[in-house]
Amino acid sequence: MTNTTNTSTNEWRTEHSIEIEEGAEVIWRILRDVAGWKRWNAGIERIELEGPFATGTWFTMQPPGQDAFRSCFLSVRENEGFVDETRVEDLVVTVDHRIERLGAKRARVVYAVLARGPGAEEVGPAVSSDFPDVLAALAKLANEAQS
Questions:
Q1: Model pTM score
Q2: Residue ranges of domains in the chain, CATH in brackets
């Protein structure tokens, strides 16, 4: 599911989600393994965590064929999700990765992007363009983890 909104000329947001036939804990184990993200997220060539997977920790990520960028975890909530933020001059891109419990063995994973500042209308869609594929790969890995 996708929901996109342009709230102003310098703000852009979208949300993608998928329902997964696994519990929040299984999904969380995959998400907290930051070094393993590149196994299921084709948009990551290299990623380096600068400390624990916790609020306030910085990480550097490099998409294939692009320059690396540095981001910070604004919030990390066990079995619920995390929020990261990337700043490039006056542009701020925040991505909320949420796990919504739908039952003991079912969850919805939501990736929500908010881009604010100059170029938000171009950067937001570029950042989120692969989210449907990323979420599908996450769901596949979660289902395989319990097989």
A1: 0.91
A2: 2-145 (3.30.530.20)
